[in-house]
Amino acid sequence: MNIASVTRRAIAIAAVCATLPMGALAQAKDPVRIGLVSSKSGVFAQQGEEVIRAVQFAIEEANAKGGVDARKVDVQFADDEGTPDAGRRNAEKMARDGYNLLIGPIPSSIALAIAPNLERWDAAFFAVASKSDKITGDTCRPRSFRTNHSDAMDIAMIGEWAKEFKEKTYATLAADYVWGRDSAESFAKAVKAQGKEVKLQLWAPVGTKDFSPYIAQIKAANVEAIWVAEVGRDAIAFVKQAQEFGLKTKIIGHSLLINFMIDATGKALEGTQGTITYTPDIDNPRNKAFVAAWKAKFNRLPTDNEGQAYNGAQVIFEGVKKAGSVKPADVSKALRGATIDSIYGQVTMRAADNQLVLPNFVGSAKVVDGVLRPLIEETFPPSVMPGPSPLCKM
Question: Is the per-residue pLDDT at 17 higher than 70?
């Protein structure tokens, strides 16, 4: 075959490709296979359903636009049951089935069970709601990424925010597992550094239904404020019982001002201060477009969990685009140190520990347009956040 005929053939092929719809081109490339492992049962079920809904929305949105890097996005789902064993087992099955871009667990304990296995499974993992510092600390892995705020980021912000606190005596009440202990211990360290006193620290096992003994101890301690780091149904139970038993102590919440908790507790959290992970009020074009599309489909605003999960899915998609590949190793390499246009604005995936460096927020639960929801009152820039942990060795 001479050069002229080869050239004519190449031109003909290019012309045919140009007439193909994007969906057909997406079919021609290896698809993006997402392993969505989150809670449909157990203590984190409601948060898990929000994560599932948002990741599926992101996938549907991407496919409607022709896929990611002209690739169709497929998804397989498994229930992590809110436990590390089930989460690890189901994540492994999906990864070995080829759905090896993993996303979705709520508790840090599941993220920590998944991360050490990623090389063996040939997978990458994206934490979207898990906050434990261990994820980007001594358990960090080259293929493990966090796209939400860490405890260290929250506590660094709290360290600045706490300078505004007038209270001098505190108690802490936290869920008795990795995240809760990290949160309460870090908060205690931050306020003690300012010469304030932590008079009482309480640890409630996950699944606690009766908080009356803890509430009695808080009352007896006669502190001015309590730091609360509870999760899911446990947090709802505490807030309801605190109101029922007349606890007047000021509550400051770590991940307490979450939409589903506010919705489940009536007006009990109105006026409560705390950390905020995401709201639809974040002012940038990417977030405005997301909120508008979400409202068009669901006739309501996205929740904080939904915003965080959507953001995590977008980070995966950016990794695929930057890598020009769906292989977990390639996606991971492309993301480390990358700048990403996100619903939080322009953000960077820190190369040293695979932590997405985000602005952070505090505020309170207030009524907006007739709905009680988290409202940002102060934004802290990424410059406030701490550097990577020296415990992370990748």
Answer: no
Separation of first and last alpha carbons in the chain: 51
Least confident of 19-33, 153-167, 307-321, 351-365: 19-33
Domains of the chain, by residue range, sit at: 31-149+283-358, 153-276
Tens digits of residue pLDDT in 218-243: 999 999 999 999 988 899 999 999 99
Question: Which tokens is 180 given?
Answer: 């809760």
CATH C-level class of 153-276: alpha beta
CB-based burial label for 248 (10 Å; 0-12, 13-18, 19+)? exposed
Check if the beta carbon of residue 199 is closer than 8 Å to that of residue 170: yes
Intrachain domains 31-149+283-358 and 153-276 with the same fold: yes
Burial group, residue 394, by CB count within 10 angstroms (0-12, 13-18, 19+): middle
pTM metric for this prediction: 0.85
The pLDDT confidence band at residue 27, using thresholds 50, 70 and 90, is low
Residue 349 burial by CB count (10 A; 0-12/13-18/19+): exposed, middle or buried?
buried
Is residue 3 over pLDDT 80? no
Under DSSP, is residue 181 helix (H, G, I), strand (E, B) or coil?
A: helix
Superfamily of domain 31-149+283-358: Response regulator (3.40.50.2300)
Long-range Cβ contacts of 2-9 (<8 Å, 24+ apart): none
